[in-house]
């Protein structure tokens, strides 16, 4: 089942190339916001699934091209992002120590929305292709062998980054939690539709140019370990998002007027735009191309404010 919010945050389910309004099937759920509604559906999905399925089977779909898709999780309770969690195509000798950071729920945008690059002296703006898992029930001190019992579903996720900001101590907050820096969607796919989340092709295009292409089998700390570790630190709630990390080798600069597409196998295609009112520019070189030319790090800015 592929759950969406569309237009004015109506609840829908995708059927072929259409979306069926199923809000009537859950009209009895008292809620204060779209996020509160989807959170309660996730937590009590076994009670609502039959009614939702009946609604989508009997409903008349509207073409996806005629609706505005929203983030399937408009404001998750927690967004937890795994850091340095890929073996980078065998270029790392061993996994980095398991680590993560939190991203603000206020950074979320949905399919077709725009990531806005702020007027700050970042060395580069990047967006990391990832897939995220969505927690289905309260989880605390979960054992690895039980981890998949706590997953409701999966979705495409972009971890936007403003790198190179100078500040004392840890800069992750101001790097990662900017408004619009967490595109996700286009829909939330229930876990039963994904046979093996550790064998998913992940591809990201910028202006139709393939930049990132890797597979989730390259993940350093696998999903059971991620859930075990995160849930040992704090309790997870239904609707919490855990982004599983990226292979950094294909990262390149996001800049004004870019059109970005992320496709994780089985999770649809997430589309979004990039806007930079300052129209700053960087070479389109990826980190892999930098390394192959014997250079370290990311490309330097070559035009606009702060260059």
Structure report:
It is a single chain. The protein has 307 residues and is of the alpha+beta class. The chain has two domains: 2-70, no CATH class; 79-292, Alpha-Beta Complex (Fumarylacetoacetate hydrolase, domain 2), CATH 3.90.850.10. Strand 2 (10-15) and strand 3 (18-21) form a beta hairpin. Helix 1 (34-43) crosses helix 2 (45-58). It has helices spanning 34-43, 45-58, 172-176, 223-233, 287-292; strands at 2-6, 10-15, 18-21, 62-63, 69-70, 79-82, 100-103, 108-109, 114-116, 124-135, 151-163, 182-190, 201-206, 209-215, 241-243, 259-264, 269-275. It is globular. Helix content is 15%, strand content 31%. It has five helices and 17 strands. The strands form two sheets. Strands 1, 2, 3, 4, 5, 6, 7, 8, 10, 11, 12 and 15 form a twelve-stranded mixed β-sheet that branches. A five-stranded mixed β-sheet has the order 9-17-16-13-14, with no helix packed on it.
Poorly predicted runs: none
**How many DSSP-defined strands?**
17
Q: If you compute it from the alpha carbons, what radius of gyration comes out, rounded to the nearest whole angstrom? A: 19 Å
Q: What summary fits the major beta sheet?
A: 12 strands, mixed
- Report the CATH superfamily of the largest domain: Fumarylacetoacetase-like, C-terminal domain
The number of distinct structural domains comes to 2
Secondary-structure blueprint:
Elements: E1 2-6, E2 10-15, E3 18-21, H1 34-43, H2 45-58, E4 62-63, E5 69-70, E6 79-82, E7 100-103, E8 108-109, E9 114-116, E10 124-135, E11 151-163, H3 172-176, E12 182-190, E13 201-206, E14 209-215, H4 223-233, E15 241-243, E16 259-264, E17 269-275, H5 287-292
Parallel strand pairs: 6-15, 8-12, 9-17
Antiparallel strand pairs: 1-2, 1-5, 1-12, 2-3, 3-4, 6-7, 10-11, 10-15, 11-12, 13-14, 13-16, 16-17
Helix pairs in contact: 1-2
């Amino acid at each position: 089942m592929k759950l969406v919010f569309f237009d004015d945050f109506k609840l829908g389910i995708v059927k072929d190339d259409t979306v069926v309004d199923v809000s009537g099937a859950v009209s009895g759920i008292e809620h204060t916001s779209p996020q509160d509604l989807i959170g309660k559906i996730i937590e009590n999905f076994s009670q609502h699934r039959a009614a939702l399925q009946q609604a989508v089977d009997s409903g008349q779909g509207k073409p996806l091209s005629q609706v505005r898709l929203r983030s399937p999780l408009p404001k998750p309770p927690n967004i937890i992002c795994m850091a340095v969690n890929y073996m980078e195509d065998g270029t790392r000798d061993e996994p980095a120590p398991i680590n993560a950071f939190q991203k603000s729920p206020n950074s979320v945008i949905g399919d077709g929305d725009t990531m806005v690059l702020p007027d700050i002296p970042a060395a580069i703006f990047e967006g990391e292709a990832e897939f995220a898992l969505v927690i289905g029930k309260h989880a605390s001190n979960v054992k690895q062998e039980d981890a998949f019992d706590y997953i409701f579903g999966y979705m495409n996720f972009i971890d936007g980054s403003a790198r190179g900001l100078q500040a004392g101590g840890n800069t992750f907050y101001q790097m990662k939690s900017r408004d619009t820096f967490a595109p996700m969607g286009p829909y939330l796919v229930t876990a039963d539709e994904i046979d093996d989340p550790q064998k998913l092709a992940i591809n990201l295009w910028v202006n139709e140019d393939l930049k990132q292409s890797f597979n989730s089998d390259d993940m350093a700390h696998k999903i059971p370990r991620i859930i075990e570790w995160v849930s040992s630190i704090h309790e997870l709630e239904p609707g919490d998002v855990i982004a599983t990390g990226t292979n950094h080798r294909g990262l390149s600069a996001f800049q004004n007027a870019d059109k970005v597409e992320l496709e994780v196998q089985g999770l649809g295609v997430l589309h979004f735009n990039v806007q930079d009112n300052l129209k700053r520019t960087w070479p389109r070189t990826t980190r892999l191309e930098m390394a192959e030319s014997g250079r370290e790090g990311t490309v330097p800015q070559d035009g606009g404010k702060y260059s």
